[in-house]
Write a structure and sequence with these properties.
Elements lengths: L2 H4 L13 H11 L4 H15 L1 E2 L7 H6 L4 E2 L1 H14 L4 E10 L10 E10 L2 E5 L21 E10 L4 H13 L1 H15 L3 H12 L2
Parallel strand pairs: 1-2
Antiparallel strand pairs: 3-4, 3-6, 4-5
Helix pairs in contact: 2-5, 3-5, 7-8
C-alpha cells in the first residue's frame, strides 16, 4: 500500500484503532464480512446503535464503553474510523461548514459538521454515520457512500481531528447557551417536530 494511504491506518489520540476493545467490537459487528461489506456493516451499526446526542466528545474507546451509547457527529465518526482502521481499512475525517440534507425547506443554515471517508478499491468513499432514523425530522438519514450535506462552504480532510478542535467543541457543548438550548430541543425533534430546533440552529450559525 502506498505510504500516502497507509498513514490512514495508523492509530491516533481519539481513534485508538489498536485498542483490543475496538478490534473486538469491529470483528463482532463485521462477522465474516471483509472490505466494503464489513465497512457497511460497521457504518449501519454506528449510525443506528449510537444515539445522536450533544454530549461531551470522548474518543472511540471511551464511546465504546459509554452507557448508554450517545454521541454527536465527531465521536460517532471517531468510533467508525477507529473500527475501520482496526480491520485494515484506511479511513480519514472530513471537517465541514455545511448545509445538511433535510426534507425541511426551513433548515437552510450552515453548521459545523464532521464526517469520514474510507479507502477501498483505489478510491475514497464518503461515510458519515452521524444521523439515523430518530433524527430524520431534522436531518435526512445518512447513507453509506453518499454525502450527508447538500452543500459546503468549507471542506478539510485530515487523518485526525486536532485536540484543540475537540477541546473547543467540548467547551461550547458545556458552556455555550446555544448548545444548552440545543440539548433541550433535541428531545422535541424525536417526539414532536423540528420547528423549535431550526430556530436554535439559526442562532448557532450567527455565532460561528
Amino acid at each position: 500500500m502506498d505510504k500516502s494511504i497507509a498513514q490512514y491506518l495508523k492509530p491516533s489520540y481519539f481513534t485508538q484503532s489498536r485498542n483490543p476493545q475496538i478490534l473486538k467490537l469491529a470483528e463482532k459487528i463485521s462477522g465474516r464480512k471483509k472490505g466494503k461489506a464489513a465497512a457497511k456493516a460497521m457504518f449501519t451499526w454506528v449510525r443506528d446503535k449510537v444515539t445522536w446526542e450533544l454530549v461531551n466528545i470522548c474518543g472511540a474507546v471511551a464511546l465504546a464503553r459509554r452507557k448508554p451509547m450517545q454521541a454527536e457527529c465527531m465521536d460517532k465518526n471517531f468510533l467508525y474510523v477507529a473500527m475501520c482502521r482496526a480491520l485494515g481499512i484506511p479511513a480519514r475525517f472530513i471537517i465541514l461548514i455545511c448545509v445538511m440534507k433535510s426534507t425541511n425547506a426551513k433548515l437552510n443554515v450552515e453548521i459545523p459538521h464532521v464526517a469520514s471517508e474510507i479507502y477501498l478499491s483505489g478510491r475514497w468513499t464518503i461515510t458519515d454515520p452521524s444521523y439515523s432514523y430518530d433524527t430524520k425530522k431534522l436531518i435526512n438519514v445518512c447513507q453509506f457512500g453518499k454525502a450527508s450535506w447538500a452543500r459546503a462552504s468549507s471542506i478539510t480532510k485530515v487523518r485526525e481531528i486536532p485536540k484543540k478542535v475537540v477541546a473547543g467543541t467540548n467547551d461550547a457543548i458545556k458552556h455555550h447557551p446555544v448548545a444548552k438550548a440545543l440539548k433541550k430541543m433535541i428531545a422535541e425533534v424525536r417526539t414532536k417536530d423540528s420547528r423549535a430546533l431550526i430556530k436554535v440552529l439559526h442562532r448557532v450559525h450567527r455565532h460561528l
